[in-house]
Amino acid sequence: MKYILVTGGVISGIGKGIIASSIGTILKSCGLRVTAIKIDPYINIDAGTFSPYEHGEVFVLNDGGEVDLDLGNYERFLDINLYKDNNITTGKIYQHVINKERHGDYLGKTVQVVPHITDAVQEWVMNQAKVAVDDDRKEPQICVIELGGTIGDIEGMPFVEAFRQFQFKAKRENFCNIHVSLVPQPNATGEQKTKPTQNSVRALRGLGLSPDLIVCRSAKPIEMAVKEKISMFCHVEPEQVIFIHDVSSTYRVPILLEEQGIIKYFKQRLNLPIDDQPSDLLMKWKKMADRYERLLKVCSIALVGKYTKLSDCYASVFKALEHSALAINHKLDLMYIDSTELERSTEAENSVKYHQAWHKLCKADGILVPGGFGIRGTEGKLQAISWARTKKKPFLGVCLGMQLAVVEFARNCLNWKDANSTEFDPDTRNPVVIDMPEHNPGDMGGTMRLGKRKTVFKTQNSVLRKLYGDEMFVEERHRHRYEVNPELTHCFEEKGLKFVGHDTEGNRMEIIELENHPYFVGVQFHPEFSSRPMKPSPPYLGLLLAATGTLNAYLQRGCKLSPSDSYSDLSDDSSPEKEFPNSETSLK
What we know:
The chain is of the alpha/beta class. The protein has 2 domains: 2-290, P-loop containing nucleotide triphosphate hydrolases (Rossmann fold); 295-579, Rossmann fold (3-Layer(aba) Sandwich). It is built from 21 helices and 21 strands.
């Protein structure tokens, strides 16, 4: 097993996750099996109880693990399926060690950070690195480990010490450290400054880790003189200094790394049995990055949520929309709308915000209401859903978005004016959305219906079934505590809101579709977690197709992209079948 540790300096949020994902993509393109681990030094057991404003979205894995959003980057870039133990937190490590101490495993010894905590970290990494993450179920050959936070953070010290020890246990030819640092360029002078990187590398060396590669992040391309200066002061060869400047899309990052000779370096440094040139996989990434930058047609989607001030709160939703837009040769114009600004109360307080929000909603080609928790902003979401339904705007509701679509239909089409979810009104006379007590025992964290579950289609006359490749069932990831009340579904179906998908027992409603509408779909699961750059999520792809007026033509062609929808006009050697396979291979 080869281990690649990615650390960060100067600031957090510098892009370690994208760098780690890109390195994994490059090595996978060389024919190696790659897995990834994310270490978060916070004391929380997992990310499930975080507000999205704390660490961005909570990403859900197949096994129900609620983890850091960087694991979503790993899955999308590498096209693998990770597990909850691929996300290590301080809380998990301490809980593991304390449980062992309570069981008497340490035989009366004093339990300390060194060696017990550091040993636990090393054992966890070595065990998890062996777990298969590809469909072929073979043991990985490379494990990319990202250490969250920045070097020098007090909470990260035990992990740094663990890897200081681990580099000797694993041996030099099996362990490599990549340090990601910031090279700022103050507007006052316009000069790229190396001192923060020098200080960060000095701090890393002082803790016992010596970087093999220094990846310098900057707003603009870095000059050769800066590279030579970093090489001199940070005790590395010039070819060990890699530059990654801000680019138009993250698809470009693996290409930048490869162009700077990173494959040749890894081959020599880790003694890897690979060629100096990557395979077709990285070439596909290059074509995808080139095409992304040449897109001319635009499709605008209004995302109506309540965590709109930070884009990371809906990272997977954005990526799923972007994958789908890319598949049909459109540039995505995603407009974030704070749902509270669509409410009448906002009009009284700040009419400018109210009218600006409605202006955005009205001009959008499609409307998306994502998942969420809590009552704040729900009335604004209901207003957006009503607009989409009555004006026949393409609409996709995910999790809470689907539940609110049912509430809106009950109020305005069934005339149940007090219809609501018991999450927001436990005493409502028309509880069209109810809680699941067996999945909510009281403790916070992990109390929901989580992970990959099967959804069975009830009818062949379903848009979503066709988008999924006419399968009898699909498996998608869930994260919810509430569900549509199955006792009332017949009332909705009589008025045209069809529940076309349910769980294997037939008790839980999973998919809704509205008759006589271009695209009005709601799903209880979160399909965005399974979307990949070259395998767009079918519900999101359907929304983009409907928003661009091409859904019917796509369905009539048997869910195949036409040459006009593909990228064949941008590259002589590409075709829709090559780059984005038909539904039989891509959309299952």
